[in-house]
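> run fold Hydroxyphenylacetyl-CoA thioesterase PaaI
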Amino acid sequence: MLDADVASRALGIELIEIGEGSATARMRVVPTMVNGHDIAHGGYLFLLADTAFACACNSYGPMTVASGAEVSFVDSARVDDVLVAVAQERTRYGRNGIYDVTVYRETPQGHDVVLEFRGRSRTIQREGG
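> ok
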């Protein structure tokens, strides 16, 4: 799925790890991603979180899409920050799922949380069809 995701690839988003119901993706903030306040535009941060979410909820095989999502911007990101998005499944029920994604900035001192994302998924294609 990610190989066909032109938007994520164009931003340099890399999939670092994937497992059943989980995924980790990484992106470097580049100058074309900042807004008039010289911080990363929230849409790019959302896109990184959404990409990790998409990989996690599609990790089981059937085509699964977002049915909704909400974010909380915790801190700003700046040019050259390396951001990591870690997606974890919270629950799946029927064709639905709930996933949490934490986006953090890698620093020499550790991880600074930039964004928290909660996504709701919906499977639209059954296994094998």
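The chain is about 15% helix and 45% strand.
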